[in-house]
Design a protein that fits this description.
385 residues, 8-stranded mixed sheet, single chain, Aminopeptidase
Length: 385
């Protein structure tokens, strides 16, 4: 998974760009790996074992971008990598998918700056959105600074491996195994159906990026013209609104979402057009605050899973459409079996088969309902009032 760029300003005046490292960062990442390995014995690798092949590092970073439940965040300053933190799935087997392994390392010059705490905070916030309920790490028994930091964030010692690390001079150190079980409030805030708080922000940012494939598949299926009035129902972080602004010049786009955090992020993303071409409100798709026959187009991107009364919501969408207006539902999942590999959430969630979507739209009063399928389980249901 890619972590979107974020500016971090610390109390000491230091400023960093936090983002996932990319292929073009391979040389900078190698310098970071070699320097951190040489500065301390607290890392598993030695300077001799640190990667030195730029091409291999490029390939590693390219693969890391494709991992759906792993994420790496690097702190950049003037083109240099000062610190890196990462979480990765312990095992993708169903009984262990809730566990993530966490790692973090900084150049010595960044120790004590607050950067480690900032990276750790980002990871704890991200973990629930990736389906993790438990973070685990290992630390050298003499790394007192790191142990204090982890303890401050709620990590507890869960055990030890005796003489886990042996240095070149024969000195041995235990590995302290620490873990953090995420609270129910943290897990609830990361719920993709209603993301809230810091974990919710991470969930929204992730969805904005990950849904690009779905948007690229589904939005070109529609007929675009200038001056449209559009509603994005369940607008999330506002990325669909941003793209539709380009697809439909001079259009006016409304967004509505049940999550106040989503509303905030959608407004921030589209702030240049907010109040003129963009209007985003907090509300329920099942009770839309718009007059009959308002919109030319209503979209619902990766959201109908969370509507407890989908038929009622579809009838509301049809009500606010103009005669001849179009509605489009875009889903990444079209077979309920996908829930076996998707992160579990508390609350209502249902994946609909394409034929179910078609039947529901017809029951809601739509006509000319058609189903379009993309790669894997991508599906679009398009209908006319």
């Amino acid at each position: 998974m890619l972590f979107s760029e974020k500016i971090l300003k610390l109390e000491n005046g230091s400023q960093y760009v936090l983002r996932s490292p990319r292929r073009e960062d391979a040389a900078a990442m190698l310098r970071y790996l070699q320097q951190t390995s040489a500065e301390t014995h607290f890392l598993i690798r030695t300077p001799e074992e640190a990667e030195s092949d730029v091409q291999s590092e490029e390939e590693f970073l390219a693969q890391a971008e494709k991992a759906s439940r792993d994420v790496m965040i690097a702190a950049f300053s003037d083109g240099r990598v000062l610190g890196v933190s990462a979480i990765s799935c312990v095992s993708d087997r169903s009984k262990m998918r809730h566990r993530a392994s966490l790692a973090i390392a900084l150049l010595r010059e960044a120790w004590g700056s607050g950067l480690a705490a900032a990276l750790l905070s980002e990871m704890i916030a991200l973990a629930p959105s990736l389906g993790y309920t438990q973070l685990e790490l290992g630390v050298f028994s003499d790394n007192e600074r790191a142990i204090r930091l982890y303890s401050r964030f709620g990590f507890q010692e869960w055990g030890r491996t005796k003489n886990a690390f042996r240095l070149g001079d024969g000195t041995c150190f235990d590995e302290i195994l620490m873990g953090l079980q995420l609270t129910e409030s943290e897990m609830d805030s990361a719920n993709p159906g209603r993301p809230e708080g810091s974990s919710g922000i991470s969930t929204i940012e992730r969805m904005n990026e990950e849904h690009a494939v779905l948007r690229n598949f589904g939005l070109p299926l529609l007929t675009w013209k200038s001056g449209m009035r559009i509603l994005d129902a369940g607008c999330g972080g506002g990325k669909t609104i941003e793209e539709m602004l380009r697809l439909s010049p001079d259009s006016v786009i409304d967004g509505i979402d049940f999550s106040e955090t989503s509303v905030q992020k959608a407004r921030e993303l589209n702030r240049a057009e907010l109040g003129s071409r963009v209007h985003v409100v907090h509300g329920d798709v099942g009770s839309l605050p718009y007059e009959d026959g308002t919109f030319d187009l209503v979209t619902a991107v990766e959201t109908v899973y969370f509507w407890p009364d989908i038929l009622g919501s579809l009838r509301e969408i049809r009500r606010v459409l103009k005669k001849g207006g179009c509605a489009e539902i875009l889903n990444e999942g079209s077979d309920p079996s996908i829930l076996e590999v998707w992160p579990h959430i508390d609350g209502f969630m249902k994946v609909y088969r394409p034929e179910e979507l078609k039947e529901l739209m017809e029951l809601a009063g739509f006509s000319k309902v058609r189903i379009e399928r993309g790669e894997d389980q991508l599906v679009a249901a398009i209908a006319v009032k």
